[in-house]
């Protein structure tokens, strides 16, 4: 019985990191090319750019957004904005294939009515890192965040509710989806510097989609 349960777990590829944090291994594999094709359309009107933090540092992660709101940072601070500051236009619409994947993943993790209105798209080149931070600018902290990893694998740093807690390391591979909710929502997290590797669908890049409910 015990063996059977374990076999089933690895088949569904579901790992609970802690209450509220679930990794769905390979959940986005079948849809990956479709997601990347939709991304190709988004970046025609909203290209990847390196934003500047309030402290004046240019982020090594290149970012863009789709959906009703996009995450932006500049010298005045972080915020969600309905307008792309580079174009003065609304962000591109969230593609149906993005929304469906995010909702399916959330439902699979037990969040039945997830309606994301923002999708932050991060692009990591080799050497790019994301230092330990919390995401707490979203109005409704009860809504989960869904994150989709595509392309080159990385090591995700998964910390505690205080910056001092030494993070554990979780590999994230092409097609993996994470759902963060409840007590895990305010944990510190980050990404180690990305190694120089090649993925047939993204070249030397890793792409991360994070779906949020911000309004
Ligand atoms: C845990 N992105 O965009 S995704 C971010 O891989 C961000 O690009 C990383 O952290 C990336 O803010 C990690 C996983 C993730 C995203 C949001 C979270 C984990 C989270 C919010 C709360 C807790
Ligand atoms: Fe984050």
Radius of gyration: 17 Å
* DSSP summary: helix tally: 3
Compute the number of structural domains: 1
| Associated small molecules | N-(carboxycarbonyl)-S-(naphthalen-2-ylmethyl)-L-cysteine, fe (iii) ion
Explain what the structure shows.
This protein is of the alpha+beta class. It has one domain (3-212): Jelly Rolls (Sandwich), CATH 2.60.120.590. It contains three helices and 13 strands; from the N terminus they run H-E-E-H-E-E-E-H-E-E-E-E-E-E-E-E. It has a seven-stranded antiparallel beta sheet with strand order 1-2-11-8-13-6-3. A four-stranded antiparallel beta sheet has the order 7-12-9-10, with no helix packed on it. Strand 4 (70-74) and strand 5 form a beta hairpin. The chain is globular, with a radius of gyration of 17 Å. The N and C termini lie far apart (45 Å). Mean pLDDT is 93; it is low at 5-11. Fe (iii) ion binds next to loops.
Topology:
Blueprint: H1 2-12, E1 14-18, E2 21-24, H2 32-45, E3 62-67, E4 70-74, E5 77-81, H3 96-108, E6 118-124, E7 130-133, E8 145-151, E9 154-158, E10 168-172, E11 177-180, E12 189-191, E13 206-212
Antiparallel strand pairs: 1-2, 2-11, 3-6, 4-5, 6-13, 7-12, 8-11, 8-13, 9-10, 9-12
The chain binds N-(carboxycarbonyl)-S-(naphthalen-2-ylmethyl)-L-cysteine (MD3) and fe (iii) ion.
Fe (iii) ion is lined by residues 133, 135, 189.
Put the structure in a nutshell.
This protein is α+β, with helices and mostly antiparallel strands. It is built from 3 helices and 13 strands. It has a single domain (3-212), classed as Sandwich (Jelly Rolls), CATH 2.60.120.590.
């Amino acid at each position: 019985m015990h063996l059977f349960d374990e076999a089933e777990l690895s088949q569904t590829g579901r790992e609970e990191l802690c209450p509220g944090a679930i990794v769905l291994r390979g959940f986005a594999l079948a849809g990956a090319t479709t997601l990347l094709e939709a991304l190709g359309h988004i970046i025609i009107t909203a290209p990847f750019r390196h934003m500047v933090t309030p402290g004046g540092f240019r982020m090594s992660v290149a970012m863009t957004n789709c959906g009703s709101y996009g995450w932006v940072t500049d010298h005045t601070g972080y915020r969600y904005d309905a307008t792309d500051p580079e174009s003065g236009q609304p962000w591109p619409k969230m593609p149906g294939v993005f929304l469906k994947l995010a909702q399916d993943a959330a439902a699979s993790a037990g969040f039945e009515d997830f309606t994301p209105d923002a999708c932050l798209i991060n692009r990591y080149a080799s050497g790019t890192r994301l230092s330990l931070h919390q995401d707490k600018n979203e109005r409704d902290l009860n809504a989960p965040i869904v994150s989709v990893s595509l392309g080159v694998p990385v090591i995700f740093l998964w910390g505690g509710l205080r910056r001092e807690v030494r993070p554990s390391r979780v590999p994230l591979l092409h097609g993996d989806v994470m759902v963060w909710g409840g007590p895990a929502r305010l944990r510190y997290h980050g990404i180690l510097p990305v190694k120089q590797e090649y993925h047939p669908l993204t070249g030397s890049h890793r792409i991360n989609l994070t779906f949020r409910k911000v309004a």
